[in-house]
Amino acid sequence: MATFERASPALKEILLRIYNAEKPIEVDHHLYEFGSVEYYIKSSASEPFTYLSISTPLLSQGVFLSYGLSPYTLQMVRDISIDALDIVEPPTDGYQLTLRLDFSKLPHDKESLKIITEVSSVQAVILSSQLKEMLQNVNSWDISQGMYKPIKLIYHPREPFYVIRQPQKIVAVFPMRFKDHSDVIIATSFFQELMDVGSSGKWAKVPHCNWSPIPPPELIGEPFEDLSTNGGFVSFDISSHHVEGKRLDKTVWSLLNFYAYVKHHVKCTRGFIQRRMRRRMDSLVQVLEKSMIEENGEIKKIKGNAGWKKMKKWMRLTSKSKMIKRRYHDFRKKMKRIRFRIKIHGFARFRRRWLTMPNFSSSMGYTQLKNNN
Amino acid sequence: MANPLKLYLTCIRNTLEAAMCLQNFPCQEVERHNKPEVELKTSPELLLNPVLICRNEAEKCLIETSINSLRISLKVKQADELENILAKKFLRFLSMRAEAFQVLRRKPVQGYDISFLITNYHCEEMQKQKLIDFIVQFMEDIDKEISELKMSVSTRGRLVASEFLKQFL
């Protein structure tokens, strides 16, 4: 699924094309993804560098971003490739970040593919680094009435989620909304399984998960439109254990893609239900076919795995062929009437009786017994 | 088959055996028309008393008979919200493909989940006993299928939840 992969497939393809070209090529591409992410790739034959500009809606519009991207985010981007990648200041007009790529400095082995893939995932790096900074940075959080104020983050335009700092842990709260009532029921069943699995002994190290149909008390004071949902609220308790070392990256990416994960599961479940219903319908129709009465001493043989569609087709074909026969017969009669203009009285009867071929097969399905007397 | 269910299905089977005595009867209102009288209900002398068989408050079967047609309406058990949407989806799926079943009605009678309409023509084309067997088998299969679907959805949810939580380890 594209939303679970960090790298943008279209961006990766363009960068690979530039990298693999034998001589420098002219490229001037604008890419749009997910309705709000924009990439601008520019490469010319006269210059050895490729310029990549990115514009992405950021997670939070809070105090972090008054001066553009934070130094932590810029450092995370530079760490993708220190040799081949450089940040251009100021960025291109209308974009938040412009990178200068020098493909000649990339190694000529599989490592180059890895670096190009990481460059293609620069949008994921920017957003993940923002959330990482929030999870790691405690002092700059607002405190209101002795409680830490929840921060609203927006990864997808209509699906914000909240991160709330508490003593010993960070709580991520996801208000869930679905368009269809059946999606709500399937998702609710999933959330209950998530709670059950998370609370079992085997999964003691994972963040504690909770689902409730009403907003949690930490979100008191938030706007009403953000708290009105039909799928309830899912919250994860992230402890320091989950943000240590390499786990931080995985935790952040899982939280950012939680909505997409749930929506994907609901969609797959609906497809599964549809497939099962089709299979069951075929088996039910077969039971009914057995109740059909035998005709002309022959059992109507219908293949077991053909289903009702073939039976319908067969019935349509037989009625069509009868219609064609009738129309041919009418046409023949008309032609004869036109051709035989000379009428001889009584000849038609004579012709019907003596000049037609006898029909040896009986249409009644039985042969008349000869009278032996 | 559990005992209460067996009694319920036996009662329905016996009622259908008595009710499925249909004959051709042209429409009394319109010349050269032949309509299922149980649907029109214009001539009370052609209708028999409807029979309602209830297993419990949630499950019931209504059998309405007339001289040339018979209508069977079923209300299926739905214990919770998930069973409710699964039953609704499945029965709607079958109703939309009613031509495959021939005896199935496209729209269920109000207050019920699914309805069958059997006419004298169906009784001429199909064997009566096997038709009754089909109806009873259908009822059993629907219950079984909804239970299996519910279990499958829960199992899938559990597996997907495990896969999601693995990312935090």
TrEMBL record, chain A:
Location(s) in or outside the cell: Cytoplasm, Cytoskeleton
GO BP annotation list: actin filament polymerization; Arp2/3 complex-mediated actin nucleation
Keyword check for Zinc: no
Swiss-Prot/TrEMBL keywords: Actin-binding, Cytoplasm, Cytoskeleton
Alphabetized GO MF terms: actin filament binding; structural constituent of cytoskeleton
Pfam families per record: P34-Arc
Domain of life per record: Eukaryota
Similarity annotation: Belongs to the ARPC2 family.
PANTHER family: ACTIN-RELATED PROTEIN 2_3 COMPLEX SUBUNIT 2B, ARP2/3 COMPLEX 34 KDA SUBUNIT
Function (record text): Functions as actin-binding component of the Arp2/3 complex which is involved in regulation of actin polymerization and together with an activating nucleation-promoting factor (NPF) mediates the formation of branched actin networks.
Assembly with partners or alone: Component of the Arp2/3 complex.
UniProt protein name: Arp2/3 complex 34 kDa subunit
From TrEMBL, chain B:
SUPFAM superfamilies the UniProt entry points to: Arp2/3 complex subunits
GO MF terms, alphabetically ordered: actin filament binding
Keywords: Actin-binding, Cytoplasm, Cytoskeleton
InterPro entries, sorted: ARPC2/4 (IPR034666), ARPC4 (IPR008384)
GO CC, one annotated term: Arp2/3 protein complex
Source superkingdom: Eukaryota
Cell location: Cytoplasm, Cytoskeleton
Gene3D superfamilies the UniProt entry points to: 3.30.1460.20
Gene Ontology biological process terms from the UniProt entry: actin filament polymerization; Arp2/3 complex-mediated actin nucleation
Record function comment: Functions as actin-binding component of the Arp2/3 complex which is involved in regulation of actin polymerization and together with an activating nucleation-promoting factor (NPF) mediates the formation of branched actin networks. Seems to contact the mother actin filament.
Family of the protein in this entry: Belongs to the ARPC4 family.
The protein's name in its UniProt record: Actin-related protein 2/3 complex subunit 4
The species this protein was found in: Hibiscus trionum
